[in-house]
Amino acid sequence: MRDEIREITTQETLSLRQRVLKPFLREDQCVNPGDDLITTHHFGLFYDGKLVSVATFLLESHPDFPAGLPYRLRGMATDVSYQGQGLGQKLLRHGIEHLRQKRCDLIWFNARIKAFPFYEKLGFLYHGPLFEMKDIGPHKVMYKHLIPR
Ligand SMILES: CC(C)(COP(=O)(O)OP(=O)(O)OC[C@H]1O[C@@H](n2cnc3c(N)ncnc32)[C@H](O)[C@@H]1OP(=O)(O)O)[C@@H](O)C(=O)NCCC(=O)NCCS
């Protein structure tokens, strides 16, 4: 296998977050509230040993979605040289399956317009209007209900 997915630390996510998602910030400014909580899961996909895709799931509710165990996806990023090869999708599927096993029943997040097709392919739905996020651009809430086993 050339690719391997495993849980990583907040620190390990920062370089890809900074380079791919927030190039206008320093790496240390790419830490999000809750990153170091015990309930937070950071997943990384390693390709030939190099970390090329990251995703973080935080235990966080959304006011419009009643849920028993809701998780918010943040910091979904694939290294530009590795995009479009199915790696981000593989990582996200892995994270969702991991959370489903833990009885998570909702995944939601704020999606950038450019990433809409990526999330649609995974069955995520839109909620509410487009809204602007400073320095980044328009976003929409996307979500998916999971049926806990
Ligand atoms: C969005 C992102 C995480 C997707 O990761 P990726 O590894 O490139 O995605 P994949 O190769 O697994 O794509 C899975 C599917 O989505 C499609 N897809 C991915 N990004 C797409 C895009 N911007 N436009 C259209 N389709 C896209 C792929 O073509 C692929 O389709 P297929 O299964 O029919 O081949 C990555 O492009 C990225 O880091 N973008 C910049 C940061 C960003 O926008 N992150 C999301 C913040 S909300």
Helix/strand layout:
Elements: E1 3-8, H1 10-21, E2 41-47, E3 50-59, E4 70-78, H2 87-101, E5 106-112, H3 116-121, E6 125-133, E7 137-145
Parallel strand pairs: 4-5
Antiparallel strand pairs: 1-2, 2-3, 3-4, 5-7, 6-7
Description of the molecule:
It is a single chain. The protein is of the alpha+beta class and 149 residues long. The protein is globular. The chain has a single domain, classed as Aminopeptidase (3-Layer(aba) Sandwich). It has a 7-stranded mixed β-sheet, sandwiched between helices. It is built from 3 helices and 7 strands, in the order βαβββαβαββ. The structure holds coenzyme A (COA). Coenzyme A binds at residues 20-21, 53, 76-78, 83-89, 111-112, 114-115, 117-118, 121.
Brief summary:
The chain contains 3 helices and 7 strands; from the N terminus they run βαβββαβαββ.
Tag the structure with descriptive keywords.
149 residues, alpha+beta, Aminopeptidase, 7-stranded mixed sheet, 3 helices, 22% helix, 38% strand, binds coenzyme A
What structural category arises from helix and sheet content? alpha+beta
The CATH topology turns out to be Aminopeptidase
Q: What is the CATH class designation?
A: Alpha Beta
Please tell me the overall pLDDT: 97
Order of helices and strands: EHEEEHEHEE
> CATH superfamily membership, which one?
Gcn5-related N-acetyltransferase (GNAT)
Approximate shape: globular
Largest beta sheet: strand ordering: 1-2-3-4-5-7-6
Can you tell me the residue ranges where pLDDT is under 50 for at least 5 consecutive residues?
none
How many DSSP H or I helices?
3
Helix share bin:
10-25%
Which molecules are bound in this entry? coenzyme A
Biggest sheet details: 7 strands, mixed
Report the span from N to C terminus.
29 Å
